[in-house]
């Protein structure tokens, strides 16, 4: 069969799960004209057109329930990686750093980019990190 003849890509990058960047398109920002295109939408469109690694897709959704931290995004990459929500993002000033942070995330197997390799906005503007489902619980039967 033709499928059997297709070359296999066994590189570590090819084995990584896809990364999905979810951008809130309804986020507003203080000082931005309320009649103008929503900053969240601006950010979503900018990231969708950005030079991101293969395997990374961008989608827009209405509200991540992080409205007080607008603009906000969620970065996730399958069942093996930690996921992150970042906030207080500026669609213009932060675009290059967000792109760099996503690119670094996409190279990991577990979503944990070394601290010093994260863009400053990802170090300082994390709203939450969500563990992979397979991560076992801490022992809840023992006192700390
Ligand atoms: S409007 Fe963007 S998180 Fe709610």
From TrEMBL:
<dbReference type="InterPro" id="IPR036249">
    <property type="entry name" value="Thioredoxin-like_sf"/>
</dbReference>
<dbReference type="Pfam" id="PF07845">
    <property type="entry name" value="DUF1636"/>
</dbReference>
<dbReference type="InterPro" id="IPR012863">
    <property type="entry name" value="DUF1636"/>
</dbReference>
<protein>
    <submittedName>
        <fullName>Putative metal-binding protein</fullName>
    </submittedName>
</protein>
């Amino acid at each position: 069969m033709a499928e059997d003849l297709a070359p296999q890509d066994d590189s570590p990058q090819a084995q990584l799960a896809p990364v999905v960047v979810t951008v809130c398109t309804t986020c507003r920002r203080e000082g931005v004209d309320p009649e103008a295109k929503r900053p969240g939408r601006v950010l979503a469109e900018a990231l969708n057109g950005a030079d991101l690694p293969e395997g990374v897709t961008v989608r827009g959704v209405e509200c991540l329930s992080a409205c007080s931290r607008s603009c906000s995004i969620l970065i996730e990459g399958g069942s093996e990686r930690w996921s992150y929500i970042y906030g207080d993002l500026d669609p213009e000033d932060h675009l290059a750093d967000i792109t760099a942070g996503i690119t670094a995330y996409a190279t990991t197997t577990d979503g944990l980019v070394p601290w010093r390799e994260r863009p400053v906005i990802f170090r300082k503007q994390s709203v939450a990190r969500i563990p992979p489902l397979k991560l076992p619980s801490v022992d809840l039967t023992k006192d700390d």
